[in-house]
């Protein structure tokens, strides 16, 4: 039952079976690898009617897309960075104050069917020039949309992927200046955070009840930032992996970020409160020292774009000082 719950959580949030839901600490040599320093240089973006993204998907539009339907929050994030709004969305990301805020976001039509099963007929009723969805989750919609609109399946695994998608959408929409500015702002923020890298051990966990998963680089875009800004030893064990509270306790976690997930409605309490029922929870250094931070899962788990990741960096670096 536990494995089923974890797979459901991963599928609902990430649109795929998130390998990071079972993770463990790596070896001393592997832990905390930050990779190369982030380059703040931004290459010019040129407007185009056709782009081929980093995953090899070619997207062609007859004219610059103006009516975009978002089936994944990355789409909402990119449009916000480009100064656009979706024709419709199934994400709650835009309600965040750093985006439109609750009142303004309420103006945007919501696609019926939710994240896992958006209705093709409803999508087409918004007369979109472009529909952007998550490949693993929404790829099955492609036949129903073919001929009526352009469908772009995205699958970001890293911040570099997210930047690449932003650049491609900027090229398609002709909003090249906005795209370059958004990329520059994010790269600059990440480079600054790298220079002040914390020596504390950090951890991101997610879940909808007492069952939880660990977000790992390569599977979770936000988690991919953490080796650059803190000691983040967590490695994926694969989809069927398990993760125990004992292993978290042994890792001496100094700062913890908790994503409480909800499906279609308000969450039923905080994940951290539910995990507190485990007697080992109170022994984790982050818990002892009051360094457990409940974060907005719409931004941290689902956003994945440069604006969302910028918020993650702001909140994470503040907590890691």
Provide the fold topology.
Blueprint: H1 2-14, E1 23-25, E2 50-52, E3 58-60, E4 68-70, H2 73-81, E5 88-89, H3 102-105, H4 120-125, E6 130-134, H5 135-138, H6 142-145, E7 150-154, H7 159-173, H8 176-195, E8 202-207, E9 213-214, H9 226-229, E10 234-236, H10 245-250, E11 255-260, H11 271-275, H12 285-288, E12 292-295, H13 297-303, H14 306-320
Parallel strand pairs: 4-5, 4-6, 6-7, 8-11, 11-12
Antiparallel strand pairs: 1-10, 2-3, 8-9
Helix pairs in contact: 2-7, 7-8, 8-14
Structural account:
It contains 14 helices and twelve strands. Helix content is 36%, strand content 14%. The longest helix has 20 residues, at 176-195. The strands form four sheets. A four-stranded parallel beta sheet has the order 5-4-6-7. It has a four-stranded mixed beta sheet with strand order 9-8-11-12. Strands 1-10 form a two-stranded antiparallel sheet. The chain is an alpha/beta fold and 321 residues long. The two termini are 38 Å apart.
Please report the number of helical segments: 14
Rough shape?
globular
Classification by helices and strands: alpha/beta
Oligomer: single chain
Tell me the number of strands: 12
Mean of the pLDDT scores?
Answer: 89
Please estimate the helix content: 25-40%
Q: Secondary-structure element sequence?
A: HEEEEHEHHEHHEHHEEHEHEHHEHH
């Amino acid at each position: 039952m536990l494995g089923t719950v974890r797979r459901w959580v991963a599928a609902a949030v990430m649109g795929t079976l998130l390998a990071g839901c079972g993770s463990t600490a790596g070896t001393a040599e592997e832990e905390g690898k930050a990779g190369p320093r982030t380059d703040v240089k931004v290459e010019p973006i040129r407007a185009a009617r056709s782009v081929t993204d980093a995953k090899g998907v070619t997207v062609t539009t007859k004219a610059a897309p103006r009516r975009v339907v978002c089936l994944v929050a990355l789409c909402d994030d990119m449009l916000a960075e480009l100064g656009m709004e979706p024709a419709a969305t199934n994400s709650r990301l835009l309600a965040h104050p750093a985006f439109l805020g609750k009142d303004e976001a309420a103006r945007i039509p919501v696609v019926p069917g939710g994240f896992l099963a958006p209705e093709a007929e409803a999508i087409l009723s918004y007369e979109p020039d472009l529909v952007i969805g998550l490949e693993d989750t929404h790829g099955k919609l492609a036949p129903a949309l073919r001929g009526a609109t352009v469908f772009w399946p995205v699958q970001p695994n890293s911040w570099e992927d997210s930047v690449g998608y932003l650049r491609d959408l900027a090229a398609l929409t002709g909003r090249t200046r906005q795209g370059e500015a958004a990329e520059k702002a994010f790269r600059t923020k990440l480079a600054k955070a790298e220079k002040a890298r914390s020596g504390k051990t950090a951890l991101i966990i997610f879940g909808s009840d007492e069952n939880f998963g660990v977000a790992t680089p390569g599977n979770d875009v936000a988690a991919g930032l953490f080796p650059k800004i803190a000691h983040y030893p967590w490695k994926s064990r694969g989809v069927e992996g398990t993760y125990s509270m004992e292993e978290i306790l042994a890792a001496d976690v100094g700062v913890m970020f908790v994503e409480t997930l909800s499906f279609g409605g308000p969450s039923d309490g905080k994940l951290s409160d539910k995990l507190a029922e485990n007697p080992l929870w109170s022994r984790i250094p982050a818990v002892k020292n009051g360094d457990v931070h409940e974060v907005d899962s719409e931004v941290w788990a689902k956003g994945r774009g440069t604006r969302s990741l910028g918020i993650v960096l702001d909140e994470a670096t503040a907590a890691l000082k």
